[in-house]
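Changelog entry

Holo records now carry the ligand SMILES as an explicit input line rather than a separate metadata file. Below, a converted record for magnesium ion, shown in the new format.
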Amino acid sequence: MPINIPGLLAPFQLLIHPRLVLPGLSVKDIRQIDFAALKRAGYRGAVFDKDNCLTIPYEDKLIPELQEAWDECRETFGKGNVLIVSNSAGTYLDAGGIQSESVTHHLQVPVLLHTSFKPAYSCISAIRTYFSSLHKPIRDDELIIVGDRIFTDVILANRIRLQHRKERTGFLGSVFSCAYEKEGTVSTEKESLLKAEGASKVIRLDRAGGPLAIWTTGVWKREAMAMRWMEKGIVNAVEKWSKPPGGEPLDTSRFVKRVLKEEPVKKPNVVEVLLARLRKG
Ligand SMILES: [Mg+2]
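Structure line, unchanged by the conversion:
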């Protein structure tokens, strides 16, 4: 198992920006994501993790249960606008790009080739280069980033969000933005976002200036369970103890599909079986 240095260093950044670990939305798996609602809110592109999000770890085929949701996602965002960013396929571990080709074949979307593991800044640059080079370029704040790990996928998304905000507002703007995050007012944020993005009110309030981090909490094959347990504990602690940014929170619940719970099939007990036989007899 290779050591993910960027992932190991990420916790140090949390001392300054603890809320980097918080996803914008948590779902069990991608079947709960309402891709059409995301598109209506202005999201145009998607970055997906592979292992334990779309495939069994180190396998290249889509988990069969996810086929319908995956087809819907690709149709909604369109060809080329969905990208796999994995810490296995497409990295230096993927000699000759054989695995990334196989994944592209099975999942029908491109795999990003990158030199550093998520959540490295060089990986972020590679993601930006990909989406900005599309025929219709996709901005940071038009992306959703979906994955099952906090220290790689969620921090990657939130790092882009942080960078995006700083680039949009400049140094002084970022200083005031940070001040806003702690103690500012709704109107201040609204004004700065409007000036920075020149976006319509509806789109601005829907996307809140950066990629949307979507955390898939379901585990298809047990892997790194101690780390997952620790990640979940950190998320809970940060949610509990850190102060949320002011302003109107982004309502992401409308991006979750209302999945009807299947009623468990009740097995008849011995008495019920005997009664049924007597009735038949
Ligand atoms: Mg994963």
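Spot-checked after migration. The CA atoms of residues 133 and 187 lie 35 Å apart. The two ends are 63 Å apart (CA to CA).
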